[in-house]
Amino acid sequence: MLRVGMLTSGGDCQALNAAMRGVAKGLSSNVEDLEIYGFLDGYKGLIYGNYRLLTSSDFSGILTKGGTILGSSRQPFKLMRTPDANGLDKVEAMKQNYYKLNLDCIVILGGNGTQKTANLLREEGLNVIHLPKTIDNDIFGTDVTFGFQSAINIATDAIDCIHTTAASHNRVFIVEVMGHKVGWLTLYAGLAGGADIILLPEIPYDIKKVVSAIENRTKAGKGFTILAVAEGAISKEDAKLSKKEYKKKMEKSPYPSVSYEIAQKIGEKLGSEVRVTVPGHTQRGGSPTPYDRVLCTRLGAEGAKAILEKDFGHMIAMVNNEVRRVPLENVAGKLKTVDPNAQIVKEAKLTGISFGD
Which of 41, 136, 138, 196 is catalytic? Predict the structure, then answer.
């Protein structure tokens, strides 16, 4: 009998179900005696023993279904060693529930924080396989994460829709794209949507250069400008602040987000109104793209193969379009950011896109 646990942790995305399906099909096609236990609401389910036995019907028809059939929650890694309100040792509780079900392995789907806890469980002696999920595409050691392409499509569609109204009214529009620490999603959606200015957390902007880029478009007879702004975009002045100083400043900020601050500053300098559109959590929703469905099937199948071979402690990654097993200890806690000197950034600048730097 092979017993495998599964959980999805952190923010949801479109392809979580497809990835779980890939693992389940990879296992069930090769093992006769198989039990898969789904822990509900992420690590919370593993901590408090909230789970259910999954059957083949649970994995039927979910390839195209967004969200996660197991539910999810955020359990900060930095608090994993901190007892809960009732004094429960969360790490010990997760281990006990793992052994209580006599699991051979637990498959953990999630982003950076989820991965760090997965590595912690590996260090505690549990057999772990991690599948890299996040719309931010910021997991180190894999070229792409599932959910990223689906989110690009939605963010790009938002920019596409803004084009017609921006052109009709000769206005400046800001589309705020998800991404607090990294700008992969904003970069790709901005390029795909034809944004004129792209502002990323990794490339601090100068508001004067942003305004200058808009004015240059106006002089060239282009009446509208579209900015794709990552929610973590930061000015050159703020980038000089310490994390503590910047956090304090943001807590006192009268703006809902950085895009509204940028909009006001641009409006003051140009003497015209700037509109802000925030697609928000729609970027996590809907059905996964065909690309993500294929990606998840491949990652899931390789995850199943690793379990069958008893090769644990890995993240299943995509490297140069090939599925690879990457040791968790080599990637946990690392962030994959956009290199300001990356070829894609240089190419974008060659086409006339401004990054405000």
Answer: 136
